[in-house]
Task: structure prediction
Amino acid sequence: MTPVALFELVLALLAAALVLSLVAGRLGLPPAVALVIGGMALAFAPGLPAFDLDPDLIMVLFLPPLLLESAYFTVWRDFRASIGPILSLSLGAVLFTTLVVGLVAHGVAPGLPWAACFALGAIVSPPDAVSAKAVLSRVSLPRKTVTVLEGESLVNDASGLVLYRFAVAAALTGAFSAWGALGSFAWLAVAGVAVGVAIGFVANRVMMRLHDANAATIVTFLVAYLAYLAAEEIHASGVLAVVACGLMLGGREHVTFDARTRTHAVAVWAFVVFVLEALVFVLIGLALRGVLVRMGGSEDALMAGLPLAVAATVTCVAARLAWVFAAVSLPRLLPRRWRDASPPLRPAIPLVIGWAGMRGVVTLAAALALPLGFPGRDPILLAAFAVILFTVLVQGTTLGPLIRRLALDAKTRLPDGHLDANMARVAVNEAGLASLETMLEPETGTHRHPVLVEQYRRRVWATSRLRDDRSVAEVERDAHMTAALGAIRAGRSALIGLHREGRIHSSVLRTIEAELDLEELHLRRLAGEPAGHG
Result:
């Protein structure tokens, strides 16, 4: 394939991803589901060249920015408060799934060496951060549950990849050392986190001195790749390095970035993440062709690998559910003084956590990275692909209906002393009003900025009404928003009319149009509307 043909193919894939995402929105499906199905359909399209994915390129191209973006928006306080369940899933569940899948795989395919069976277990054991984010963003769950699922998906790749490396080495050399594996994991985790924290600290210092929004946004992308590559260079976990760096940047972004840079960076990152996620899932579907070609493409070859694929898929899902329910239930059997003081969880919560174990890019990359001479490579590839398809297509599609059927309410009671958004708005506006009221004319003692004072008094009054009496205040707010948006539309029409008449320059048009856009976005955000609605 020529470079021009490759570029045309990438453009075609982006166009297909856009169409599939729009179709998914219309059908109410998670975009990941439509993208994987579309990729599978493209894999069988006549005339499309064989699409062999370089696993190293997949990891280094897609993982760093997607992991950094997920970690950036993870609330460190919530992450730290849920560290117990997160580690239980990212370490315990991954190890348990690896062992159980390995045992079942050897029972179904006794000709496979034990190490190869456990390599399959390690490949399919860690749920994927990209898949989890793509599906969880479309469902409504209590905040703590979302924190646990997203936190697990950020951390568990490290444990899964450690098990994978040692299983592959054992299959190729016949040697395995438990102490060596434990030491390797300790180095991967500690060194990876240290690299990420160090790079995040330096990046924060650098970006505080940058006053150009484009430059600061570019630095955030460079930092993602730098953290990953630097950690991998010293044989540490690039995944944990990026996660630690993302947590550092996200925790300080309110101080590091000014308003313009923050708005610009969020917009750019939203676009890039959409493109990368779309390509990831389309490429997963396209990888099916390579898997079938490597297995000979015949029905006999597929049927020979089907039992292992089905067994691995069923075991993978069942092992996660079993671990989650055991982790929730067993502590309740301990003596009262050792028990967690928190109330027992509803059975619906562990069921949803157990069912939300989507696999994706890491599983695909690890399977494709198996050496060509690895025993049972083709059946393992097919099994890994079957697990990805089932977890994304079936679990990803049914997770939303399951949550609604179980009546899980995303609204959780705030801890004592915590404020909701309406209460916080009152506090912010009161602080602004207090600041303005201190600015007095020395001669007369009157307010130096009376119009601003009146505006902030109006804001305090309006937000206080919304806080104290939402039913009445929301009706007034909606009427106010309708009038304000109508005024903005009228102003925009007048602005465009002035430009068409040649009475203002295009630069004036853009400047004032940007101001109107920001004002409209602010109003829609206050009204709780999606910003894209007209």
In short: Residues 530-534 have pLDDT under 50 and may be disordered. The longest helix spans residues 259-294. Residues 69 and 270 are 9 Å apart (CA to CA). The two ends are 43 Å apart (CA to CA).
